[in-house]
Design brief:
Elements: H1 4-9, H2 16-20, H3 45-53, H4 58-70, H5 72-80, H6 82-90, H7 95-112, E1 117-121, E2 133-137, E3 141-150, H8 154-170, E4 178-183, H9 193-199, H10 201-215, E5 227-230, E6 238-243, E7 256-258, H11 279-292, E8 300-307, H12 317-326, H13 329-334, H14 340-347, E9 352-357, E10 368-372, H15 382-390, H16 401-406
Amino acid sequence: MASLYQRELKGGHGKACQDKNPAIKSYYTDTGHLHIDQVENCMTDAELINYLATGLPKGCRDSLAYWFKTSGRFRNFAFNNRGKIRKKVQKPPTDEAKDDIFFELEFPYLMLLDDRFEVDYERYIGDGPSPDFTVTFSQHTVFNAEVKRIREGHLGWRYDTCIEQICAEIRTISSSLHVYINHANTFLYKPDLVDRLESEKEAVIQFIKQVVQSEEGKLPVSTTGGREYEIPNFEGELFLSISKPPRKSNHSETPCFRGFRPIFYDRKQSRKCDDEISKESKKFGDVICEGIKQMREREINLLFVNSGSSTHEQEDLAPALESLAEQRDEFFIKKRFTDKQDFFRQFGNLGGILFRSTFVDRYSVDRNSLWCNPRAALRIPEPIKEYLKKMDCPATLNNSIWNALWSP
């Protein structure tokens, strides 16, 4: 009998879920329609992920699986909003746009880890400014959250895409090994690195396959590390780290990941220039201009900026705000405000900006950086501020998505 997942893919609920689980018959109305929000167990986690995340990269699907595993409340949220989520995922034409949606979903996951928070998805669609989420804290304090993601720059995106394509090929090999592809220096790289990597991708793949096949029967089991190999034609730049973990149960594939990578700061406008605002800060300012358009008047509003960019850090926020304060009417008109005064009027609806970095050490307590707006009409309450600052840190969670990637 088809599951609910299979029937929904064909466009209707039917009674597949009832047939699969007779215990839910009481959820049917007299007309035979299913109260769908009460039958979250009708889909397995795998079915729900397939339904939501068709076309998303493997890393996103793995993260969803981990989020479901660690938060039943988030799983229910995803199930109850699966139609909205699936529609959004299917619409974007690029992987970057799909990643935006995945990063958007991290916010309700983080909120729902704490039982004091309840989350509504797109409550205000069609009713003026429409923030992504509306959160209720302790059943009485309501605030809105608009989620924005700063994407990786073009050069970094090309590098990551090429490395992921290489890793995808290596994962098809059967072995007991783990492979990481590392860059030797985070801040120093040759200008033509990405061009050369793209042109020699097939040669790199063949080299890694040869190394894996050669080391499969030789490399000893180790929990502390393995062996390193420089990649031909990239000596001093790219190297492999290969290890044999003690508890790897699936030998049908070879886990392969991007390790250390260069940070591709803009060379013409790096943060080291004192005489002009950096390109990174300008991008941050653009995100702020876009986000505050969704802030609702006479309500508490949060802008949650999730950075998928290695070149954008919390230090870029202050220069971005300073730069916005110095702009003239012409700048804000281009950003679709009436003038500078209109921008600052809407800016008063913003309670604060929470910046969450993807590229900090996973044990860092500084991953979440909260800036509170001194001009805000309504301030973010202290208990909410405290949670925003620490959510997903080791002090509040014993595990993270990092652990999910490493679990045997």
